[in-house]
Amino acid sequence: MSRLWQKPAVLVAIAAVLMLGAGFAIGWVSATATPGNDSPEAGFARDMQTHHQQAVAMAMYEWQNGEDEAMRAIAYDIATAQAAEIGMMRSWLREWDVQLSSGEPMAWAGEEHAHGAEDGGLMAGMATDAEMAEFQQLTGYEADVMFAELMIDHHIGGIEMAETVVELSDDETVVGAASRMITVQKGEIANMEGHLERILAAAEGTETE
Amino acid sequence: MASKKQTSSKSAKNAASKSAKNAGSKSAKGTASKSAKNAGRKGRAVQVAQPKPWGLILTFSAVGVVALGLIAAAVFVVWDRSRPPEGVTDFYGEYANYQEASEAIDDGDITAEDLEHPWVMQQNHLDADEDTTNDTPTYEVTPPAGGNHLSQWQTCTGTVYAEPIADGNAVHSLEHGAVWLTYDPELVDDDQVAALSSKIEGRDYSLMSPYPGQGVAVSLQAWGVQYQTDSADDAKIDEFLNYYIQNGDNLAEMNATCTGGVSTTQAATGGSETDMTEEEMAALLEEMESSAPAEGEG
Predict the structure, then answer these.
(1) How far apart are alpha carbons A110 and B293 in whole angstroms?
(2) pLDDT tens digits, residue range A151-176?
(3) In CATH, which of 1.20.140.160, 3.40.50.720, 3.40.50.150, 1.20.1260.10 is domain A36-208?
(4) Residue B248 and residue A100: Cβ atoms within 8 Å?
(5) Complete edge-to-edge strand list for the sheet that includes strand B206-210
(6) Which range among A28-42, B24-38, B234-248 shows the weakest confidence by mean pLDDT?
(7) What backbone torsions phi and psi does residue B165 show, to the nearest 5 degrees?
(8) Dihedrals φ, ψ of B74, to 5°?
(9) Interchain contact, A15 vs B78, CB within 8 Å
């Protein structure tokens, strides 16, 4: 050991190894770091919470006021599943130690997805306040029909958001959850379309009889 | 300091090689370790003069300092992010937030009554009993920033109300993790109201309403905290929203929603107040008088 101080080359070599080690350490830390405040993952989790929140409100209303049992079952499913997903995304955000809310919806998804204040900060597929107010006046058959129409659009927008984060993110948890949302919501769209057709056809049948 | 170290290192080197010569070694240019080894045989006194590897020490120190600096920077970033914006009034007394205060109570360290403002821990529904005078709760702070409230929350899915809303409903929204932005219609012009609206509109867990007579242009409330400013374009408004909406350490109720609340305003329910005491009636009349010009504008 005491020999080392006389050999600059050895010192340089040790220093180099240490620096290399530090470099690896920094690289390792940043590779395992949780998504930051401005990351697509955090943006997706924040915005999808809001998006889901409206779906839960719609589905709760349909569950209480709709009349078609199949549509009400779908509504129950959406309300409970999406409420749970909201909790999941909120846990991510807390774990990552980032903001739970942002004033710039969809900023994470790039320019073409960004929505300004002109449309009331609504994200893709979301119903406007006026649409929600109209829906929440309806009961029975009319509620079933408008629920299906609003929720199909809502899901199409949700799928678009989920596909965007799948494209942008490498985070296994987030990409995994987003992929499941895509699959589930595509399935629900198909189901709602089927039931809507049946409900409309039945109504036409009673009208013409 | 560095030069002093070098000097002492040099003299140590000289001493070592001198003792090596004295020991009869032929290689005066011999390495320090060799000299030290030779010297070692002669006695302890020479070993004390063994040179310190200053180069190494300096290198290690430098690397250490850099590493510590990086850690300190990381700690600072996290610490800074976890602090509320400056200028916020909090009503938790010696506790930092709802979480800390409620933990202190759970641990039995204090009771809610020991708090500087016990209302930060009061979360009852005042309209639960038949005494309807409780349906218009009064609050210590204006606009209120927590406390007992009404059973219905005010819908707060980024909702902008053009007319005043009931305190008791808005406080329930705060319990759900929302931020309530209020403005004094006499102190804020239409353009400023529009600018403030754009911050709230569509932003889940926030709501905004006029609050005639609050005496300050803009006031922001989250459960147990408040920020008031005379400037409608104060940058702290955004900071407050970013920090307090659904803040995990300040949630009076976890995972509650902003959908499904009431969206009535006082303009819509005006005149339905009954069973008021004389004092309440007087207070209401006073409030109506002070808000009259604002209503004229709207």
Answers:
(1) 45
(2) 999 999 999 999 999 999 999 999 99
(3) 1.20.1260.10
(4) yes
(5) B89-90, B225-229, B218-222, B179-183, B206-210, B157-160
(6) B24-38
(7) -115, 165
(8) -65, -45
(9) no
Average pLDDT of every residue of chain B: 79
When scoring A101, A102, A154 by the number of chain B Cβ atoms within 10 A, the one with the most, hence best to mutate, is A101
Assigned token pair, B57: 């020490």
Burial group, residue B282, by CB count within 10 angstroms (0-12, 13-18, 19+):
exposed
Specify the DSSP element, H or E, that contains B182.
strand B179-183
The token pair at A47 is 């915005």
Distance CA A128, CA B46 (A): 88
Q: What is the ipTM of this complex?
A: 0.74
Return the minimum-mean-pLDDT range out of A115-119, B88-92, B109-113: A115-119
CA distance B267 to A113: 38
- Contact (CB<8Å) B202/A120: yes
Domain boundary assignment for chain A: 1-33, 36-208
Tell me whether strands B218-222 and B225-229 are parallel, antiparallel or unpaired: antiparallel
Angle at B99 between CA B96 and CA B103, to 5 degrees: 105
Region of B177 on the Ramachandran plot (φ > 0 left; ψ -120 to 50 alpha; else beta): left
Candidate ranges B45-49, B126-130, B209-213; pick with highest mean pLDDT: B209-213
CA dihedral B213, B214, B218, B222 (to 10 degrees): -140
Query: How many Å apart are CA B178 and CA B158, to the nearest integer?
Result: 9
For tokens 């808000």, the residue is: B291
Q: Is A87–B255 a contact, with Cβ atoms under 8 angstroms apart?
A: yes
- Tens-digit pLDDT profile for residues B91-128: 999 999 999 999 999 999 999 899 999 999 999 998 88
**Contact residues, chain A, for B203 at CB < 8 Å:** 50, 101-103, 105, 121
Residue B62: how many CA atoms within 13 Å on its side-chain side?
13
d(CA B9, CA B55): 10
